Amino acid sequence: MLRHGSLFSGIGGFDLAAEWCGWKNVFHCEWNEFGQRVLKHYWPEADSFGDITKTDFTKYNGAVDIISGGFPCQPYSTAGKRKGKEDERHLWPEMLRAIREIAPRFVVGENVRGLVNWNGGLVFDEVQADLEAEGYEVAAFLIPAASVNAPHGRSRIWFVAKYAANADSNGQHGGNSQYEKQSSQRGQYAQRNLKPLRSDFGKFPTQSPLCGGNDGLSCELDGITFSKWRAESIKAYGNAIVPQVAYQIFKTIDFLDQN
């Protein structure tokens, strides 16, 4: 069983995908109060952190196999001002710091499609170069939510990185040697059944398909949405990853781990 930690966790899209895989959610990190409530409700045994800039992750060094995170997209999104590195929400350096402190075997990152062409792809290239400098093999994929049968496009960039050696001077990168045999298996994908999408589009227009339906999130994350949190709930859905996409990526990692 792999051990997973999520950064910029939102309402737990990565954590839900990890749970579907049978992995242990060790910690999550989310500054938003509504997101924290959702995470603590569904994963009460996981360590919970708020502000990533004030969190020391060194205690997890060698104790977490995979780190995931949808680092904030607003600096690069075509829906915003696209200030990029000048935006205070440019937090990739903080995610990189966490990766250095934890030294996981795998890293999965997510961001908006606009990251590819912001300033000629500067940050898109930087993310990959930073991970490679830490000893990871990196691949980037443009995957839409529609690829897992969601009724909308929602294309996102996914970075998938695997540590390419047993250890280095900065950390342990895990505790067993079974990953040595995986280098010859890159690109193999397990064929698994997806968890069903929540979708009420069949009832449109008499019932709204918005919120839980439009982003393909599991209905299990809707159970603690109260009226006073309505605006935060809608905002959280808009910022959330589609866990079915993360699930496919995680199942590939799981397949490599077991073969």
Decide which structural class fits the backbone. Answer: alpha/beta
With strands numbered from the N-terminus, the spatial order across the biggest sheet is 3-2-1-4-5-7-6
Radius of gyration: 18 Å
Going by CATH, what is the homologous superfamily? Vaccinia Virus protein VP39
Shape: globular
Described by strand count, sense and barrel closure, the largest sheet is: 7 strands, mixed
* Total individual domains: 1
Order of helices and strands: EHEHEEHEHEEHH
CATH class: Alpha Beta
Q: Provide the low-confidence segments as ranges.
A: 77-82, 175-218
The CATH architecture assignment turns out to be 3-Layer(aba) Sandwich
* Topology, number of strands: 7
Helix content: 25-40%
CATH topology: Rossmann fold
In percent terms, what proportion of residues is strand?
Answer: 15-25%
- In quaternary terms, these chains amount to single chain
Query: How confident overall, as mean pLDDT?
Result: 76
How many helices?
6
Distance between the termini: 13 Å
